[in-house]
TrEMBL record:
Protein name as it appears in the record: Choline/ethanolamine kinase
PANTHER family hit by this protein: CHOLINE/ETHANOALAMINE KINASE (PTHR22603), RE24176P (PTHR22603:SF93)
UniProt cross-references to SUPFAM superfamilies, sorted A to Z: Protein kinase-like (PK-like)
Family: Belongs to the choline/ethanolamine kinase family.
GO annotation (BP), single: phosphatidylethanolamine biosynthetic process
InterPro entries cross-referenced by the UniProt entry: Kinase-like_dom_sf
Annotated keywords: Lipid biosynthesis, Lipid metabolism, Phospholipid biosynthesis, Phospholipid metabolism
Entry-linked Pfam families: Choline_kinase
GO CC annotations on file: cytoplasm
Keyword Lipid biosynthesis applies: yes
Molecular function in Gene Ontology: choline kinase activity; ethanolamine kinase activity
Domain of life: Eukaryota
Lineage: Eukaryota, Metazoa, Ecdysozoa, Nematoda, Chromadorea
């Protein structure tokens, strides 16, 4: 079975082909997942309904090396429909398909043309197929335009990745969505949360500690802090973690943990812009710190680890912010951006200190946001091994640890 960091090195060809893969298969899978089935006229075979898709790809064997034949047939039809070209000419037996581990709310597969089949036009020779497992449409913060714009323009190192995302002028609502989305998830949960907590936590009744009213109140406190933060509104990925970063196949990581590359090469690309939206810049960096200590490689329940020792050091953050600001300076010369460059200080050290403050205060926002998300997904029947209740409770505990720093906005 493939992991994102190892096997997705197999996503060969240029960054443009990788972009085409993401754009064609991921965005169209989104569209296909949510449109009325009658509106999709397939020239190949009938594609299953969204519910049938989730059930089909959620088969136990489909998530392991042994992929059922009916899954391969369906995948071939999806690729033929959305990628076209040579994908229309191959049989299911010729399709090369491997599952990718690491996703906690969707299923991801690497699909490739056989080596002896030559592309007919601009279609990619390999692609990513993502099957959304959640039924909640409100979880998508933006439309397929996000895939189209981001996949073609994002490369470079992590600081540069953040900068290139933040500088984009994307034609969606330019307002911070984090509280609105979290409130939407909370409203969906409602009174079911207390029942769910008692059902999962038989020995310890946490229903009085984690309730709708408690979380609603915490969101109101966060809203006050965000309004006082002064953090600029920029386009954010919102979920840039280990499972959403691909290392291109021609690059390796040396024994020191560095890329063996020249100065102008682009070794990594982000994927999975499901939660991308305009948001407070601080959320992106606060979320980065949170994800730095979360490891989703655990193959036993609860299927993740919290590794506090992996919190990034000030030196690491300083390097990240310097790289970020270097790329912002470079990209802002392009007039088609939304980044509030007029608010950037000419004093580099002062600007870095602003980023440090945001990065140290915003983790609380990320923890509460993803805890509510996790409780929401726990209410759905997902074909993914992950303890959403445990994860949500851990993120709540981390939220309360980080909350005092966030409250500094109200005292400054």
């Amino acid at each position: 079975m493939y992991s994102n960091i190892d096997v997705l090195k197999k996503l060969k060809s240029s960054a443009r082909n990788h972009a085409a893969a993401i754009k064609s298969i991921c965005s169209n899978t989104l569209r296909f997942r949510f449109q009325n089935q009658k509106s999709l006229q397939m020239s190949v075979a009938k594609i299953p309904t969204p519910c049938e898709l989730k059930k089909l790809f959620g088969q136990p064997n489909a998530k392991n090396e042994e992929i059922p034949y009916d899954v391969i047939v369906c995948t071939r039809e999806l690729c033929a429909r959305y990628l076209g070209g040579a994908w229309n000419t191959i049989s299911p037996e010729q399709l090369r398909m491997q599952p990718i581990i690491g996703g906690i709310s969707n299923l991801l597969f690497l699909v490739e043309l056989p080596e002896n089949v030559v592309p007919e036009g601009g279609e990619p020779v390999c692609s990513l197929l993502r099957i959304h497992c959640s039924d909640d449409l409100d979880r998508l913060l933006s439309e397929a335009v996000v895939f189209t714009m981001l996949s073609e323009s994002i490369t470079k190192h992590l600081g540069k990745v953040f900068a290139r995302i933040h500088i984009l002028n994307v034609p969606i609502a330019k307002k911070a969505m984090v509280i609105e989305v979290a409130n939407g998830w909370l409203e969906k949960l409602g009174d079911k949360m207390r029942h769910k907590m008692r059902l999962k936590m038989v020995q310890t009744d946490l229903s009085k500690l984690v309730t709708y009213a408690v979380l609603k109140n915490e969101l109101e406190i966060i809203q006050l802090c965000l309004e006082k933060s002064g953090s600029p509104i920029v386009f954010c990925h919102n979920d840039l973690q280990e499972g959403n970063i691909l290392l291109h196949n021609q690059y390796t990581i040396n024994e020191n943990g560095d890329f063996d590359i020249s100065e102008n090469e682009d070794p990594i690309s982000p994927i999975d812009f499901e939660y991308a939206s305009y948001n407070y810049r601080g959320f992106e960096f606060g979320n980065y710190i949170c994800e730095y200590m979360l490891d989703y490689g655990n193959d036993k329940s609860p299927f993740y680890w919290v590794k506090r020792e992996r919190t990034p050091s000030d030196e690491q953050l300083y390097y990240l912010f310097n790289s970020y600001l270097d790329e912002i300076d470079k990209q802002k010369r392009n007039g088609d951006h939304f980044y509030p460059v007029k608010n950037l200080s000419l004093n580099r050290e002062a600007e870095i200190q602003k980023l440090f403050i945001e990065a140290r205060r915003f983790p609380a926002v990320s923890h509460l946001f993803w805890s509510i998300w996790s409780f929401c997904l726990a209410d759905e029947s997902l074909p993914i091994s992950f303890d959403y209740i445990s994860y949500g409770l851990d993120r709540i505990a981390l939220y309360y640890e980080c909350k005092p720093r966030l409250l500094e906005y109200l005292n400054s």
